[in-house]
Each structure stands twice: as structure tokens, then as C-alpha cells.
């Protein structure tokens, strides 16, 4: 009994499939493509768009309409026609196509209801999305900086992105705000050893400890100046006295 039912349902499925495909091909399906411009989620459009129709094999002609106004006629595939929303009055419009087969049967497509808006509206909406995102992305590091300063975590002189201790040479440096973020770390280059590594904002204590290393390094490099170099420097300084 069960197997019979299965055979029947499989048969129905096989029979239904070609019928469905045939039904789709006997009609006229319209698509609306945005070629250049703005298309909002609410059906607001502005710019350069194109109609694109698909129909049966014997489709001979397609007319594209905006309300009752004929936008254009296409007599051969591809059944495609471009239009600019600026060429039509602002407001809500019905966009559709009418096709004719070789045997003169008339096919009506699906209808798109779209509101043609001004260019400024389109850009305005885009800006309303982009500007807050930009502000947020700028505000976060500033807020983090202020918070860290308040908590006393931040050590002065390391800038907005905070100081880090290089894991390669152990020396402290100011993280570059432009360095790419990797979670809480940044992928940054140590100016002392020139090596790239993942660095987190270090605590004030860690930075202070690392700074002593920097002072030692500076002290060690001082006597390395040759006597000649020292003299030259002294002469240079004396010129301003
Ligand atoms: Zn380093």
C-alpha cells in the first residue's frame, strides 16, 4: 500500500514538473534591473533602469509601459529596454510589459509598482546610512581613549590607539591608528626593530617598565657618537647662540 502511494506521488511529481515549466513559458515574465542609480528597499527608484522580459519561444514583439505610456517596442530578443526615471514624473508608477506571439496572442506581464524619486532623495538615503556608520567608526576609538584615560590605564604620549610593547624587541611604541584591527589587537609595525606583530594596547605599568629599556638603549647609543660628530654638533648649536 505504502509503495503504491510512493509510486503515485513520484509520478505526480514528474507530471507536475513539465506542466509548471510550460505554464511559466507560456506567460510573459518581467524583471526590472538597476543599471545605474538608486533602488531603495521601499520601492523608491532613481536612475538608469532596464526592463527585461522572458516569454515563450514564439514571442514576436514586446512593448514596455510605464503606466499607460509606451516606453518602447522591441521586435527581437533580447527583450530588453532601458529607461531613465528622470524622463517621467516623480511619484508612483506601474511598470509592465505586453507581449505578442507569432500567432498574435497577447501576453501581459507581472506589474511592478515603483516610486520614482529625485536624485537627491536617493543620495540622501544613502548618506543617512553611510554617515552614521562613519561617525560611529570614528567615535569608538575616541571613546575608548577617553575611557582608558579616566581609568588611568592610558599612559600619556602614545596617542589615540594607545601604546604597545613590541613582543619581538620588548620596546614600547605608539600603535598607529591606521593599523588593521585583529579583534582587540592591531597588526602593527614596531619602529624600533621594524618587525610586524599583533599588539594589544598595553597597560600603563607595562609601558613604564618597557620605557626603561628604551632609556638604556638611548644611553648606550650616546657614547657611540664619534668625537668628530660631537664636535660638528656643538658647532652647529653654537651658530644659534
Ligand atoms: Zn620591536
Chart the SSEs and their pairings.
Layout: H1 2-26, E1 29-39, E2 44-54, E3 59-66, E4 69-74, E5 80-84, E6 91-101, E7 106-108, E8 112-116, H2 119-151, E9 163-165, E10 172-174, E11 181-182, E12 185-189, E13 196-199, H3 204-221, H4 227-238
Parallel strand pairs: 2-8
Antiparallel strand pairs: 1-2, 2-5, 3-4, 3-6, 6-7, 6-8, 9-10, 11-12, 12-13
The site of zinc ion has 8 residues, from loops.
Task: For the structure shown, list the relevant keywords.
about 30% strand; 3 domains; eight-stranded mixed β-sheet; 13 strands; alpha+beta; about 240 residues; binds zinc ion; Immunoglobulin-like; three-stranded antiparallel β-sheet
Can you put this structure into words, describing what you see?
The protein is of the alpha+beta class and 241 residues long. The chain folds into three domains: 2-117, Sandwich (Immunoglobulin-like), CATH 2.60.40; 120-151; 154-238, no CATH class. 37% of the residues lie in helices and 32% in strands. It contains four helices and 13 strands. It has helices spanning 2-26, 119-151, 204-221, 227-238; strands at 29-39, 44-54, 59-66, 69-74, 80-84, 91-101, 106-108, 112-116, 163-165, 172-174, 181-182, 185-189, 196-199. Strands 1, 2, 3, 4, 5, 6, 7 and 8 form an eight-stranded mixed sheet that branches. The chain has a three-stranded antiparallel sheet with strand order 11-12-13, with no helix packed on it. The protein has a two-stranded antiparallel sheet with strand order 9-10. A hairpin with a 2-residue loop joins strand 11 (181-182) and strand 12. The radius of gyration is 35 Å and the shape is elongated. Residues 18-25 have low confidence and may be disordered. The structure holds zinc ion (ZN). Zinc ion (ZN) binds at residues 166, 168-169, 171, 190, 192-193, 195.
